[in-house]
User: Which sequence fits this backbone?
């Protein structure tokens, strides 16, 4: 945890209230942990904001995107949509089970066709998951609550540090 940015310099937030940087963290999870510590010690966390700076888009490539994979994904999606539509028809006419089966088969067929068309139109041969990440995360607090937040966080961190020390 990097808390070197406890400058006490007020900044404006989107709500117009002046905020003071309580700490700077390298991961969002670490910033959330600091807010969790404040919440556990009954601090009014509605006055806290986590601000990510240095935003960038990262794509994690998860594999090749081939026609069989695209068709399989389209078929499964189409079948689920068909099941949903079929169940709606079944609610309206409870004894017509054939409507459910027909809807599933039509959904599967449309899913395969649209997936194949989409695969043919796309230009990349891989599948990826996108995420927006920040270089750093500032935990900020309204100026009038800054001293209390520092005190609560320092006490919580010292209690956590002392509980993780090995017994002597």
Assistant:
């Amino acid at each position: 945890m990097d808390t070197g940015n406890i400058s006490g310099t007020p900044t404006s937030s989107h709500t117009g209230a002046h905020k003071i940087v309580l700490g700077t963290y390298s991961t969002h999870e670490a910033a959330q942990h600091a807010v969790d510590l404040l919440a556990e010690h009954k601090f009014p966390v509605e006055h806290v904001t986590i601000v990510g700076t240095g935003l960038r888009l990262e794509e994690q490539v998860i594999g090749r995107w081939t026609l069989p994979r695209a068709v399989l994904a389209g078929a499964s999606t189409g079948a689920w949509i068909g099941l949903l539509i079929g169940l709606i028809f079944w609610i309206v006419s409870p004894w017509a089970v054939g409507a459910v089966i027909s809807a599933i088969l039509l959904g599967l067929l449309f899913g395969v066709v649209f997936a194949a068309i989409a695969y043919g139109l796309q230009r990349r041969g891989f599948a990826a998951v996108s995420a927006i990440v920040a270089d750093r995360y500032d935990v900020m607090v309204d100026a009038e609550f800054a001293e209390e937040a520092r005190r609560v966080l320092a006490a919580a961190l010292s209690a956590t540090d002392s509980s993780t020390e090995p017994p002597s």
Notes: The longest helix spans residues 67-92. The two ends are 25 Å apart (CA to CA). The longest strand covers residues 56-64. The chain has four helices and six strands.
